[in-house]
Amino acid sequence: MKRGTPISEIMTKNVITLNTTDSLEIAERLFKQNHIRHIPVVSGKFIKGMLSLTDLLRISFADAVDENEDYVDTIVYNMFTIEQVMAKNLVSVNSKATVKEVAEILAKKEFHAIPVVDDNKLVGIVTTTDLINYLLEQFEN
C-alpha cells in the first residue's frame, strides 16, 4: 500500500452541489439522477453544509418513490429548507491530507462523506465508498 497518498488522488473533483436557496425537491432529484448519497451545500465556492440522502429520508418518504419517477409528493419538502435539514458543523480536510488521515476520521465519526476544502473553497468530496474502492485497488496490485 502506498504510504502518504494524498486524498486528492481518490476524491471526487467534479462535485455535484446544492445552493442554500435550492429546494429539497431539487436535492432529491440530484440524489436519484446521479446515484449519490451526499451533496455539499454551497454559497458560491464556499461550503455551508452537507445534505445526505439519509437527511431527506428522515423527513419524507423519498425512498418509497421509484428513482425513475419524476413526480414526487413534495408537501413535506415545502415545510423545510435545505439549511434546516443539512448538517452544518462539518469536519473537512484539505487536498493534501492523506488517505490514512481521512480513513481515521471516517472510522471514528458517524458520517460517510467529508468535504475537501482548500483556502476555504470546496475542491472535492471523499466518501467511505471512495476509500473502500482505493483499498480494493491495493489488493489488485
UniProtKB/TrEMBL annotation:
CDD domains: CBS_pair_AcuB_like. Residues 11-67, 86-141 form the CBS domain. It comes from the Bacteria. Keywords: CBS domain. The keyword Cytoplasm does not apply. InterPro entries: CBS_dom, CBS_dom_sf, Diverse_CBS-Domain. Pfam families: CBS. Coiled coil: none annotated. PANTHER family: CBS DOMAIN-CONTAINING PROTEIN, CBS DOMAIN-CONTAINING PROTEIN CBSX3, MITOCHONDRIAL. This is CBS domain-containing protein.
